[in-house]
Amino acid sequence: MNIFRFLGDLSHLTSILILIHKIQTSRSCRGISYKTQLLYVIVFVSRYLDLVWTYVSLYNSLMKLFFISSSSYILYLIKIRFRPTLDPSIDTFSLPYLIIPAAILSLIFNYADEKAWLSEVLWSFSIYLESVAILPQLFLLQRTGEAETITTHYLFALGAYRALYIPNWIYRYATESFVDPIAIISGLIQTALYADFFYIYFTKVIRGQKFELPA
Amino acid sequence: EKNHHSHDEL
């Protein structure tokens, strides 16, 4: 564990707490993509179910439990509790375009060996799917052209999580010769998808302005 | 050298 990874995980955890806070205080899931949240549940379940048969550390297991349960809870809030506030007409990104390529890639590029096939394929699937899971949310943002400030804080914390993993990988390569090409390449793509968002967040939201996309 | 199969990252 190094500082970058720890801050990344903390940022990830914070993003989820911000999102739950936003939905509960506004009693609305306006501006939130159900499809992106559904993808995160798929990502977390396919990657973190290994907590049943793999033990890394107490920290690792607790975080996995947190991510599976909190993302499921968010899905419940959106789909059941505050369902009337959901507007499916703007959340139109097609999920098969993301899930099918991620599934195919995971069958081709994975770390499977004779001992572990399914768990390794599921792991790489979750990594590929995570790297693009934010797209329905960014697409929704693009369509509405603006966002509540709290939603932009959520997106910033979520993007910062994977961005912080990049110095972590550099650090791990330098100190333990650890290289995970699947995670690194997907992580770079995932972070790059936030480039536009980060730009507007830093130039507008941080200065107290409303998040609005240029017309 | 640690291998990537350990998946110790979140």
TrEMBL record, chain A:
* Membrane-crossing residue ranges in chain numbering: 62-78, 90-109, 121-141, 153-170, 182-202
Q: Name one GO cellular component term.
A: endoplasmic reticulum membrane
How is this protein named in the record?
A: ER lumen protein-retaining receptor
Q: Which GO BP terms, alphabetically?
A: protein retention in ER lumen; protein transport; vesicle-mediated transport
List the keywords (alphabetical): Endoplasmic reticulum, ER-Golgi transport, Membrane, Protein transport, Receptor, Transmembrane, Transmembrane helix, Transport
Gene Ontology MF annotations? ER retention sequence binding
Q: Where in the cell is it found?
A: Endoplasmic reticulum membrane
- Lineage, highest ranks first: Eukaryota, Fungi, Dikarya, Basidiomycota, Wallemiomycotina
What's the superkingdom here? Eukaryota
| InterPro entries listed in its UniProt record | ER_ret_rcpt (IPR000133)
Q: How does it sit in the membrane?
A: Multi-pass membrane protein
